Amino acid sequence: MKNVKVYGPGCQKCHLTEERVRKVVKEGSLDANVEKVSDFAEMAAAGVLSTPAVSVDGVVKMAGRVPTEDEIRAWLG
């Protein structure tokens, strides 16, 4: 199972990123746990300085913009 974290304080782009990640996981019937992280201390500990950000199994894949669904599929594939 993949552990996916979406980092962001709750802005519109952060919500859109979380929606896209959850959509890709659901549509692909992927074995992944999606968690939303809005705690600034946890974001800093993960090395996230710009949001929204997405990590997969502890590796930050993207920060500072909303990923495309194709990008998310590639990370989870």
Question: What is the element layout, followed by pairings?
Answer:
Elements: E1 2-7, H1 12-27, E2 32-37, H2 40-45, E3 53-56, E4 59-63, H3 69-76
Parallel strand pairs: 1-2
Antiparallel strand pairs: 1-3, 3-4
Helix pairs in contact: 1-3
Describe the 3D structure.
- 39% of the residues lie in helices and 27% in strands.
- By secondary structure, the protein is of the alpha+beta class.
- The protein has one domain (2-76): 3-Layer(aba) Sandwich (Glutaredoxin), CATH 3.40.30.
- A 4-stranded mixed β-sheet has the order 2-1-3-4.
- Helix 1 crosses helix 3 (69-76).
- The longest helix has 16 residues, at 12-27.
- The protein is globular.
- The mean pLDDT is 97.
List the defining traits of the structure above.
27% strand; 77 residues; 4 strands; Glutaredoxin
The CATH class is identified as: Alpha Beta
**Which segments are poorly predicted (pLDDT under 50) over 5 or more consecutive residues?**
none
Q: Within the largest sheet, what's the order of strands?
A: 2-1-3-4
Q: Give the H and E element order.
A: EHEHEEH
User: How many strands?
Assistant: 4
Strand content: 25-35%
Q: What is the overall silhouette?
A: globular
**What is the averaged pLDDT score?**
97
Query: What's the number of structural domains?
Result: 1
